[in-house]
Amino acid sequence: LLAGPDGRPLTGRSAVVTAGPTFEPIDPVRGLTNRSSGKQGYAIAAALAELGAKVTLVSGPVALSVPAGVERVWVETAREMQAAVEAALPADVAVMSAAVADWRVDGVASGKIKKAPGGPPSLALIENPDILAAVSAPGPKRPGLVIGFAAETADLEANARAKLSRKGCDWIVGNDVSGEVFGADANAVTLFTRDGGAEAWPRQSKAEVARKLAVRIADHIG
Ligand code: CTP
Ligand code: CA
């Protein structure tokens, strides 16, 4: 680990981190969202900042305060998240930990939809942009290191490896969400790398997972 001028390995480096869910409106009072407390992503933003990085944290709606030394950009929808991530580029590293809603409602109602005797409304869904895949695409603004997450309830390794190649990112943090993960303070993850590497980290606090990942990032790009 090379130390920067102030002794911190990521001084002079920049990072963009996504965290939390996105919220896709149905009408002014309802929406579609994903389960995510944002804790793991916020902890990663904090850990990168502690190592000296300039961190932009693009956050969906969560009940967490901004970590010290981190700039937070608050978003609701996947498309807002994508725009905020693009505005934060170029960056040396991107960590996409957000639980992005895969679909949004086509034709959001401008007024509250009322219950009617005819039964529930049907929702037409359209696919949201894949922010991780877009950031991973080759180009002058591609960060040198792009890290995605894969939250899976089964076949973690196969799903994580498939995402690694489909999205074109460099590392995937695989997360087994069949147990107690959502909202919890601890997490068990496996780090999958493009070169075929897989490293399982024992269940530990989300803060510890974040510090470990930040040190790995510093080793790689610092
Ligand atoms: N991701 C993203 N934009 C999306 C969907 C996902 O940036 N529209 C990112 C997530 O932040 C995460 C990674 O892609 O880092 C994997 O997300 P996941 O939901 O597991 O992958 P999907 O491709 O959406 O596959 P599925 O939900 O069908 O498992
Ligand atoms: Ca998804």
Q: If you had to describe this structure to a student in words, what would you say it looks like?
A:
The protein is α/β, with parallel strands linked by helices and 222 residues long. It starts with 13 loop residues before the first strand and ends with a helix. An 8-stranded mixed β-sheet has the order 5-4-1-6-9-10-11-12, sandwiched between helices. The chain has a two-stranded antiparallel sheet with strand order 2-3. It has 5 helices and 12 strands. Bound molecules: cytidine-5'-triphosphate (CTP) and calcium ion.
Summarize the structure.
The protein has 222 residues and is of the alpha/beta class. The site of cytidine-5'-triphosphate has 15 residues, from α3 and β9.
Features:
single chain; 222 residues; alpha/beta; eight-stranded mixed sheet; two-stranded antiparallel sheet; binds cytidine-5'-triphosphate; binds calcium ion
